[in-house]
TrEMBL record:
<dbReference type="InterPro" id="IPR051600">
    <property type="entry name" value="Beta-PGM-like"/>
</dbReference>
<keyword id="KW-0119">Carbohydrate metabolism</keyword>
<dbReference type="InterPro" id="IPR006439">
    <property type="entry name" value="HAD-SF_hydro_IA"/>
</dbReference>
<keyword id="KW-0479">Metal-binding</keyword>
<dbReference type="InterPro" id="IPR010972">
    <property type="entry name" value="Beta-PGM"/>
</dbReference>
<keyword id="KW-0413">Isomerase</keyword>
<dbReference type="GO" id="GO:0008801">
    <property type="term" value="F:beta-phosphoglucomutase activity"/>
</dbReference>
<dbReference type="InterPro" id="IPR010976">
    <property type="entry name" value="B-phosphoglucomutase_hydrolase"/>
</dbReference>
<protein>
    <submittedName>
        <fullName>Beta-phosphoglucomutase</fullName>
        <ecNumber>5.4.2.6</ecNumber>
    </submittedName>
</protein>
<dbReference type="Pfam" id="PF00702">
    <property type="entry name" value="Hydrolase"/>
</dbReference>
<keyword id="KW-0460">Magnesium</keyword>
């Protein structure tokens, strides 16, 4: 059986994608770029700077701003996003995820968090989950973003287990690709993900029993 379960944050433990989108949309609008919710799918799991570059590209504005202007825009979006996070409470934990974390601890299965969000500690605090993980990846120490496996391998190392003994849960294609590249059993949340070992439409059906069953089916 797996010895650790590694969670992505946004889209797996909590849904803040709509808040990221609101903040990006306001920023984009100010510089004359229109983005819609379909485009937002492409921003999931992508870092702050990476997201800004994709938005500029979508509006044909690649190279239109200096690095200082880009930094200012990213900071503006983040201030807006942090303001929106103020409304976040324990009721925003996605269905089943509080129970799953609880069961894993009971079963002695280690838990890790592999989020690229620099706001992850703040989000965990708002959800009352700051003590819920055995290890939370420190984004400042990660140099390659997903789909590179670095963040997941970093969590495995910190938990002192090999990737073959871990399960990862992701809602972004870049995240699934990162898990596969790292040799970690990948569970995908979302209908359109490719390459996951097992896929569910939402977190609702995800439990330790399901993880165990899928693990045994593949091992
Ligand atoms: P921040 P995850 C990701 O979180 C989000 O999916 C993505 O939309 C966001 O741009 C990224 O974090 C960076 O967030 O601006 O707060 O550092 O899915 O890796 O938990
Ligand atoms: Mg995510």
């Amino acid at each position: 059986l797996p010895r650790a379960v590694i969670f992505d944050l946004d889209g797996v433990v909590v849904d803040t994608a709509h808040l990221h989108f609101m903040a990006w949309q306001r920023l984009a609008q100010r510089i004359g770029i229109h983005i819609d919710t379909g485009f937002n799918e492409q921003l999931k799991g992508v870092s702050r700077q990476g997201s800004l570059l994709r938005i500029l590209a979508s509006g044909g504005k690649t190279g239109s701003f200096t690095q200082a202007e880009c930094d200012a825009m990213a900071a503006e979006k983040n201030a807006d996003y942090v303001g929106l996070l103020a409304g976040l409470t324990t009721t925003d934990i996605l269905p089943g995820m509080g129970e799953l974390l609880h069961t894993l601890h009971e079963q002695g299965v280690l838990t890790g968090l592999a989020s690229v969000s620099q706001n992850a500690p703040r989000v965990l605090r708002a959800l009352g989950l700051e003590q819920a993980f055995n290890y939370v990846a420190d984004t400042r120490r990660i140099t390659h973003s997903k789909p590179h496996p670095e963040i997941f391998l970093n969590v495995c190392e910190a938990l002192n287990i090999s990737p073959q003994h871990a399960v990862g849960i992701e809602d972004a294609q870049a995240g699934i690709d990162a898990l596969r590249a790292g040799g970690i059993f990948a569970i995908g949340i979302g209908a359109t993900l490719e390459g996951a070992n097992y896929r569910l439409a939402s977190t609702e059906g995800l439990s330790w029993a399901v993880i165990r069953q899928q693990w045994l089916r593949h091992h």
